[in-house]
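Field: COMPLEX_INPUT
Field: COMPONENT_COUNT = two
Field: RESIDUE_TOTAL = 648
Field: MODE = joint
Values follow.
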Amino acid sequence: MNTVTDPSNEILVDCKSVWKIFGSRAPAAVKAISERGLSKKQVLDEFNCVVGVADASLQVRRGEIFCVMGLSGSGKSTLIRLLNRLIEPSMGGIVVKGRDIAKLNAAQLRDMRARHIGMVFQSVALLPHRTVLENAAFGLEVRGVGKEERHQTARAALDKVGLTDWTSRYPSELSGGMQQRVGLARALAADPEIILMDEPFSALDPLIRRQLQDEFRQLTKSLGKSAVFITHDLEEAIRIGDRIVIMKDGVIVQVGTAEDIVTNPADDYVSDFVAGISRIHLVKAHTVMRPVAEYSAAHPHVDVGSLLRASPEADIGNLIDLTMQSDRDAIAVVDNDAIVGVVTTRGLLRSVAGHPASQATAA
Amino acid sequence: MNLEDLRFSPGTYLAPAVDWLNTNLHPLFRGISTVVEAVLSGIEAALVLLPPYGVILIVLVLVYFAVNIRVALVAGVALAFCYLSGLWVASMQTLALVTVAVAISVLIAFPLGILASRYRKVEQAIRPVLDVMQTVPPWVYLIPAVMIFSLGRVPAIIATIVYGVPPMLRLTTLAFNQVPKDLLELGRATGASPRSILFKIEIPSATPTLTVGLNQCILLSLAMVVLAGLVGAGGLGAEVTRGLTRMEMGLGLRAGLAIVAVAILLDGVSRGALQGRSSKVVRNA
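Field: COMPLEX_OUTPUT
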């Protein structure tokens, strides 16, 4: 799950300290915030305005799946709607593909949404009086693409999500999971670089949800799309996202990879979330390992070179498997033929339990 | 001060106003009269030109292709009843009158209804007017209408329109307010123009409620057209009035049932035509 592999590493969406303030006196509140640096509570008391998103900055790179995780009321839905200007920001700038979207006129904005930013909704939002094919072709239809061509493109998009045989059905005949596939096909048919996913799988049952998560990740990666994926489920964010943003009360609390967030939570709020998450496939050897010198000092009779070996990218699951294959109490972590650290059984157990690795060999 | 002086009599203001309108805007009313008369006579002539069974046959075929066989049969039976009760010409006159009145009502109510659903202020301004239009007994409209357009079909149509606009307008507003917000958001997020959103999302989603509105508009208009028999609008209303004044039970009953037949015909056809697409969805489901 490494994003830096993409050579271009181009930033598609750049969100620069964006604020959204709701309320009739929002402009005055914005002014007060920029001049006096009011807190959210002060804004509510003084202007009776609610801060939806406060000072959010983030960058989405090409080919990256970027998850925004937060509970209801955390401002995540507002944030995603700021990215395609369904909601106008009160302050700050959003640059999509190098263009400041606040400066686009109505027609340019429509064009930007039609060609570059797709969106998938939690409620799916299929048009009940249209067939699956017509629904999938909707984006192209409003863009003025001819019937023949748009149906062909929509059919191809439906193929990708596995609905080839359902094109002439109506949405009411489909299950929830299939409806959401149509929603995804509709977004893909327009071939945008960026797909905004607004809690698309939240209403589905767990098995279908998991299946769609995997399919979505695979599809997005194979098509090279970027996605901003909103969810209230940290496990989903970890499963899907290359990077994860955690939001609370409109503020971005932490940005990082799943491993960063799980091993290094920014505050108590994030640690509470992370507490229930299984680390087995998240945490890698390079996080768990301790310096060779530290191990040798504690175990002077053990030859480090004779230990079983693992790569720094091996996750805890792999390390456990390795440990079980030998009667030794440690594994050497090897990078480029050099032993860079040692993972002890005790250290493994500590990291599974969620304790910081730094004390792993202390006892 | 005498309390008697406080008595409210709008007639003392209204009558001069109508007089003023009559003297100053006579050419305008004359023009409206001529146009409405011409359209009405045209439709009526077309309906009476062919022999009754010819009309019935054409309606059967048209409705069969436009809607389905069931509605076509209902329409055919309703028309056959009008013919067999010996009130064919009167029925056709009423049909023409209602069709024109409803068409004009919809032309007025539909755009205003959309405006009212978009802008709160418009809705607030229209609502009391609608309340008054619906609570004043309908024959009261006939008085100024007759004063301006004199006796005949034109005042009848004007009064009918006044009566038919409110339900259509209210239900249009309701229908558009009920369009799911997520579908509107879909339209915007897809980059659809306001025009595309109106025609491809809002109107299709609003159709069921719009159908109810049209249906109410038709039925209330029909009731009003019958009442308009009092001012010489002809048609079935005139037959009912005649039955009433002469105490002819048979004629009154036949005319009354013919009105029911016309109502069933208009209701079935309008509903079927509007719901053609959505009923297909239901059938497949």
